[in-house]
Specification:
Strand 3 and strand 4 (135-141) form a beta hairpin. The protein has a 7-stranded mixed β-sheet with strand order 2-3-4-1-6-7-8, sandwiched between helices. 30% of the residues lie in helices and 16% in strands. The two termini are 67 Å apart. The radius of gyration is 37 Å and the shape is extended. It has 16 helices and 23 strands. The longest helix has 35 residues, at 442-476. Helix 5 runs parallel beside helix 6 (198-210). The protein is an alpha+beta fold. Residues 436-461, 469-482 have a biased composition (Acidic residues). Keywords: Nucleus, Ribosome biogenesis. One of its GO terms (molecular function) is GTPase activity.
């Protein structure tokens, strides 16, 4: 028999241990009540005990929560694409160069006679209206290879969480990202054999980094393959999809019946929520009209029409046009809905068999002018301000600067402390500072230096004169010459530019390699003194424990930045205040026209070129400038060096802007080491 001794904490009684009543010790209930005299204890039960429910109450509470969530999901599905809600916005994204969206569009349009097709001209899409199913869709195509906006160069796609990064110059990549900001669903069109190419891989990386809404995967084509190869290609494609789209279903898109199944899936699937658009009103422009001002034709009022999504839209709030900036609204109108499930028919006009309604309202405001109703006008006293920077007070943080007399005294003391010593020829100033010698020999040293300098000048003039004589003799000798015809096609005007770009890229690669090999070393320049080059640096006895005030010696421009004492607390307070307040505005699903003031003409020009026009309403304080910190990681497909302080393009939520960021290490200390390049093996703070 072996006895084992249990150590401390080896055994603890479980929840099923028998609990016996404690002995009362002669305390009778009647005597205690008499002593209390009818008084009741003021000790309240703790919250934890109040939340403890019995088994029946817990089951009932769980059933109620489950029922509420189910009803919320059903209400969201029924509201999207219905008569009272906005049309279901679907963006078609081809992920391979061999896939064209035209075949998918033809199949989606070839529905039964109950579907009304509305062509949208320059808006770059079409609409499907089904009065029998009480559903309406709007399809927009994001084509690759078109001439995109002038946002060339490296760009950065970020979110509020650590995200991936990619550097590329795709044709219409920014348009795809802008459409994904407002799309209800993305319809990815895949190649039946390869799925997606390199460009499609870049697009998927950017979409996942920005935030992916609900999506569906369709495979048009593939009917020309033999049945056996078709099955093998589908298995290969499903295996490739496991990494990017786990638990995703592939929809073939070759017949009208398959397109109907795809539409049913788009209408009934659960919507994925993106935090940056759930709390803000947003819309995709259906039509746009520009009214220039009398002073200048470059700025004017922009009338944008579209369906309100997300949250109700108020006229006193600011609106952000993606890629163009923040603006104020002056008025909100309610024109007739162009995608109504029950369109009005003009008397004498024969209704076609398929109820097709033509929509040529890209600039067609004249037809609906009499039916437009003014919903609300802006109140100047309640309207949000466009002020984005703080006006700094020059008297704030005043310091006592030295006077001119004090500066002159400091310079005189430096000159008085200088001494002249005799040193060997070729000795540097740093070495001479350590040599101890008599001050009397300083004048002799200066004379010797002048003699040496004179001898060096004589030798240099003699060498130059000899070179000049030899060159004159060569010029006097006759040379054999011949003439030949050179074609103009051999001249490449861009050759010099290409060579310069290659040299700059090679220099950047060399700098990145040197920074990777010697991350903690800096070369002292030859043309600038070290005390001047490193005058902005400071020495620390310990990088971990030495104190460093973050507000010490800040540039004057930092006074123009808005600062939050507690950002998370301010955000929670604003969200709580917005939920309590019942603001009047255009409800979700309404078709409205926004009058946006002081908009440059370039906005409507880009819309006429076929680029999407996306608008978001701003929450309080969102127009103000502050410092942003992102945790980013370099995409594995990027091989080009990305240097700090280089201008990049940021996609952050619903914003797109240019900035020249600084890179620093992601550590838990209060001081962070600066990085000169974006490293491929670690996440950095931007």
């Amino acid at each position: 028999m072996v006895a084992a001794a249990a150590g401390p904490g080896a055994h603890r009684p479980g929840p099923l241990k028998q609990q016996n009543k404690a002995h009362k010790g002669g305390k009778h209930s009647g005597a205690s009540q008499r002593r209390a005299g009818g008084r009741v204890s003021v000790k309240a039960q703790p919250r934890r005990r109040l939340r403890d429910l019995n088994r029946v109450d817990r089951r009932h509470q769980a059933l109620q929560l489950r029922r509420q969530r189910k009803e919320a999901v059903l209400a969201e599905k029924r509201g999207l694409g219905s008569r009272d809600g906005p049309p279901h916005l679907v963006v078609l994204v081809p992920l391979h160069s061999r896939v064209t969206a035209q075949d998918a569009i033809c199949l989606l349009q070839s529905q039964d006679s109950a579907v009304v097709r509305v062509d949208e001209g320059k808006a770059g899409g079409f609409a499907l209206l089904c009065p029998r199913l009480k559903q309406r869709w709007r399809f927009v195509t994001a084509q690759a290879g078109e001439e995109g906006p002038d946002w060339g160069g490296p760009w950065l796609c970020t979110s509020s969480s650590p995200s991936s990064r990619a550097v590329l110059c795709a044709g219409d990549l920014h348009a795809v990202l802008d459409l994904a900001k407002v799309a209800d669903s993305l319809l990815f069109l895949l190649d039946p054999t390869d799925g997606w190419d390199n460009t499609g891989e870049h697009w998927l990386s950017c979409l996942f980094a920005q935030g992916l809404p609900s999506y569906a995967l369709a495979v048009p084509g593939g009917t020309d393959l033999p049945p056996k190869k078709r099955i093998d290609a589908r298995k290969k494609l499903c295996k490739a999809l496991e990494k990017r789209f786990p638990e995703a279903k592939l929809f073939p898109l070759n017949t009208e019946q398959e397109s109907s199944l795809l539409l049913r899936h788009l209408a009934t699937q659960k919507q994925r929520h993106l935090s940056f658009r759930d709390r803000r009103a947003h819309l995709l422009a259906h039509t746009a009209q520009f009214l220039p001002t009398q002073e200048s034709g470059l700025v004017g009022t922009l009338k944008v029409s579209g369906f309100v999504r997300g949250q109700p839209l108020h006229v006193n709030s600011l609106v952000h046009i993606v890629g163009h900036g923040d603006f104020q609204m002056s008025q909100v109108d309610a024109p007739p809905d162009p995608l109504s499930l029950n369109p009005r028919v003009v008397k004498g006009q024969k209704r076609s068999e398929d109820m097709e309604v033509q929509d040529d309202s890209v600039g067609g405001y004249d037809e609906m002018e009499e039916d437009i109703k003014v919903l609300m006008k802006a109140d100047p006293s309640k309207q949000e301000s466009l002020q984005s920077e703080v006006v700094p007070d020059p008297m704030e943080g005043e310091q006592t600067w030295p006077t001119e007399e004090e500066l002159q005294e400091a310079e005189a003391s430096l000159k008085a402390n200088r001494r002249v010593v005799k040193v060997p020829k070729g000795t540097s100033k740093y070495q001479a500072a350590w040599i101890v010698d008599d001050e009397e020999e300083g004048s002799e040293k200066n004379d010797d230096d002048e003699d040496d300098d004179g001898m060096d000048d004589d030798m240099l003039e003699e060498a130059l004169s000899q070179e000049g004589e030899s060159s004159e003799e060569e010029e006097g000798a006759p040379e054999e010459c011949e003439t030949m015809t050179v074609s103009d096609c051999l001249r490449d005007d861009q050759y010099d530019e290409k060579v310069e770009e290659d040299e700059q890229m090679l220099e950047r690669y060399r700098q990145e390699r040197m920074d990777e090999m010697f991350p903690d070393e800096v070369d002292t320049p030859r043309d600038v003194p070290a005390r001047v080059r490193f005058q902005k640096y400071r020495g620390l006895k310990s990088f971990r424990t030495s104190p460093w005030d973050p507000k010490e010696n800040l540039p004057r421009d930092y006074a123009r930045i808005f600062q939050f004492q507690d950002f998370s607390r301010t955000r929670k307070h604003l969200f709580r205040q917005i939920e309590k307040e019942e603001t009047e505005g255009a409800l979700v699903g309404w078709y409205v026209t926004l009058h946006i003031c002081n908009v440059p003409v370039s906005v409507v020009e880009s819309f006429k070129e076929g680029k999407p026009l996306v608008l978001f309403s701003l929450l309080p304080h969102e127009q103000k400038m502050s410092v942003l910190n992102f945790l980013v990681r370099r995409h594995p497909s990027n091989n080009e060096p990305v240097k700090a302080k280089e201008e990049l393009i940021f996609h952050c939520g619903f914003r797109r802007f240019r900035a020249s960021p600084l890179f620093s290490q992601h550590t838990s200390a209060d001081k962070h080491k600066l990085e000169r390049f974006l490293r491929p093996d670690a996440a950095l703070v931007v």
